[in-house]
Amino acid sequence: MPLLHWFRPPRYLLTLYLAGAVTGVLCLAWLAGRLLDQEQAVESQRERAQLEVAADRAVAVFQRSLNELERQAFSTDGPLPPDILAIVADRLSIRSRPAGRVVFVPIVPPSSALPPGIFAAGEQAEFGKAGLASAIDIYRALTRAQSRAVRAGALVRLGRTLRKAGRHPEALDTYAELARMEDVRIDGRPADLIAREARCTVLEETAQRALLEREANDLRRDLASGRWTLTRAPWEFAYSETSAWAGSAATPINGLDAAIAFAAAADALWQQWDGRPTSGQAVMRLADRPVLAVWKADAVRMVAALAGLEYLETICGQVSIDANAQVALADRDGQPILGRVSGRQAIRAAADTGLPWAIAVAADHPDRAVADALVRRRLLLAGLGLVGALIVGSSYFTFRGIRRELAIARLQSEFVSAVSHEFRTPLTSMRQLSHMLLAGRVISDDRRGQYYAVLVRESERLHRLVEKLLSFGRAESGAGRYRFEPLDAGDLVRSVTTEFHGHADGWSLETTTPSTPCPVRADREMLALALWNLLDNAMKYSPDCRTIWIELSVGGTRASIAVRDQGIGIPPADRQRIFRKFERGTQAAESGVQGTGIGLAIVHHVIHAHGGEVRLESEVGRGSTFTIVIPMETTA
Ligand code: ADP
């Protein structure tokens, strides 16, 4: 029931308002959730679109770079970027630009022609019964032959025979002479390479370690520089043999792996070329490194460009900057070639782009994008939180305002009924008495006199009530409507108590005032009204003890008028509230004492308009003391 009571008009307005505010806040929270979701979706869509654009840009840059590479490599002259090797091959030979950069080739030039059986006699002696000495003589004679090919062949054999004969210094000299014949090929191998290898063998046999290591290392470096036209297997054999001879003296050779990879790529391209026109691009994985090959061939000539990791890294870096993204490449089988990307990616397959690799593109700074999104989200949340807080805050204050207005409305209606009640009691008795007097039903003069006295008292009571109501408006309007004048507070207290005493039959008023004047600046009428109200209350709320104590005292620059009774007292919870208009104490309402709830409000307004204050000390069941404190007038 009390709950239903609460919902009676006009409180349902409050309920409606509260429901509206709560719904508003809930809607806002829902909206915030939706906005966040949407923001996230838009953000991820934007990210995806950005990645797609970056991937397209990357494809364009790669295509441009490859076109440029083809243009540079397929023109027969002009500089080439570093780490690029151009290959020009026909069916019988293969050349590189820059020259000598392939360490081995798929095909070698034919050996120099020799007259048939030219070394037959020497070899018969060498391997037959005639002996090494006679073989040496035969070969030595041939070293003076006209033909360089014969001379070279003779020197090889002479060196070999001298070695077998244990004449090592002579063998070394012979090989040194042969090493100077750089343009002759014996059995498909360059004569100078054969001579230098043979010298190493002799040095090894004669345990000339230091010299061997030095010569072997030089030979190794020449092999690595692509000095000789060799096929892969002989080159690899020679290189590993010389490396073993060089031992601890073997110095590292920069770029050898790349050179081997290039040579292997050129080898593979040449092997694939079957004499038919062809062209293409591919990434080959050779000697564990990626090599980009771009080639073009007709029936007689093949041109190719080979690019290594360095080149790929350079264009990848360029793409990264251009597209503002991380870029990774993978070959057609999905094996990574270069780079690594993480997070969300856009992929371009090799088949779609015509490039020799697949491209994966990811945001350059995914963390930054995440951080930006987080900041935006936080701002949005903060904004919505602020709006929510504003709604809650304003709802709270509006709620309080409405509640106060409702309370005042209640108090006002109680006030109207209290005032009506206060009017009705004296009016009823006045009506009855005047009717009796008019009808001449009161014969005794004494009784008539008494009735007239009652009529006077009740009409004065009504007058005071009307005055009180009228003064309430004046008291409330502030000091502007007060008429301040210098007066003696002692005089005022005495005159008010005397007048009040005339209206309080059977009551004793014990008044104490100082003997010296107590000058104050006050509105006589209003201050008297305030004091009267205090005396009136003391009388109303003191049912048992019929004495009121009034004391005027001076403390420093202030005068205090205390009105004390031994009445019902005021509970602590009421002590502030009762100074507000229309507010009545709980005990007063319960004990049935009539009142309007404006007496103390008048006192409060009047004393504040005088620059003073009202103090209250009270004990329930023991009485109350209201003290008016106002400033005294100082005489300069
Ligand atoms: P009312 O017309 O109800 O007396 P007032 O504004 O004069 O209105 O006083 C407000 C309330 O203060 C009273 O209803 C009463 O509860 C309490 N009150 C005032 N004076 C006294 C007093 N002397 N003793 C006890 N209660 C008092």
What's the short version?
The protein has helices spanning 2-6, 11-74, 120-127, 132-142, 148-164, 168-179, 191-205, 209-224, 232-246, 256-272, 309-323, 350-353, 366-438, 445-476, 489-503, 524-540, 586-591, 599-609, and strands at residues 84-89, 94-97, 185-186, 189-190, 278-286, 289-297, 302-307, 325-330, 336-338, 345-348, 358-363, 485-488, 508-512, 519-522, 547-555, 558-564, 613-619, 623-631. By secondary structure, the chain is α+β, with helices and mostly antiparallel strands. The protein has a domain at 481-631: 2-Layer Sandwich (Heat Shock Protein 90), CATH 3.30.565.10.
What labels describe this entry?
18 helices, Heat Shock Protein 90, alpha+beta, binds adenosine-5'-diphosphate, five-stranded antiparallel beta sheet, 636 residues
Written description of the protein model:
The protein has a domain of 151 residues: Histidine kinase-like ATPase, C-terminal domain (Heat Shock Protein 90), CATH 3.30.565.10. Helix 5 runs antiparallel to helix 6. The radius of gyration is 62 Å and the shape is rod-shaped. Strand 15 and strand 16 form a beta hairpin. The strands form 5 sheets. It has a 5-stranded antiparallel β-sheet. The chain has a 5-stranded mixed β-sheet with strand order 13-15-16-18-17, covered by helices on one side. Strands 9-8-11-10 form a 4-stranded antiparallel β-sheet. Helices cover 56% and strands 16% of the residues. It is built from 18 helices and 18 strands. It has 636 residues and is of the alpha+beta class. Adenosine-5'-diphosphate binds next to helix 16, helix 17 and helix 18. Adenosine-5'-diphosphate (ADP) binds next to helix 16, helix 17 and helix 18.
